[in-house]
User: What shape does this take?
Amino acid sequence: MATTSDISRGMIIKLENNLYSVVEFGENKTARAAAKVWAKLKGVDNNRSIEKTWNSGENIYPVRVEKKAFQFLYKDDTGYNLMNNETFEQIALAENMIDAPQFLMDGSEVFVFINTETEMPIGAELPEKIVVRVTYCEPGLKGDTATRALKSATIETGATVMVPLFVEQDELIRINTKSGDYVERVKE
Assistant: This one.
């Protein structure tokens, strides 16, 4: 059994029959009253974000989650179809269960979080940084580099990202999947 002293960022806990991920947490201490532990929670199986306060030392119910590597195969009416890299078992996930689905390419690696109690997937995320090819962007103007000016570029997944003016069509770039920001150019 875990208590409020075991709370950590990213932990998934069961609260009122729903699963929540801990986004942020802290402790409030006052001179007379007992310490309280607060947490900002983001719903894993629903789209709610809540704040919860417990008395210090109160029991919480963490859920054990495994992170497994899957490969993205294709998207159809059932959702995003993924294959387990070890067992070759296929699953389909809804778009709202995947972080940044706009950056998925055929064959790209995806990490699926599986609830070990029910063996059901509860979410998926892409690697933090991925390399993609720019399929279309306007040419940059020479000499316009005094400010950190950006232009929009379409990448091979069909998504649009903001890139510096020096990035050209058919170049490989690295982007951050969490924020959708350009990181750097990649040499071929």
In short: The chain has no helices and 16 strands. The first strand starts at residue 2 and ends at 3. The radius of gyration is 21 Å. The chain has a mean pLDDT of 88.
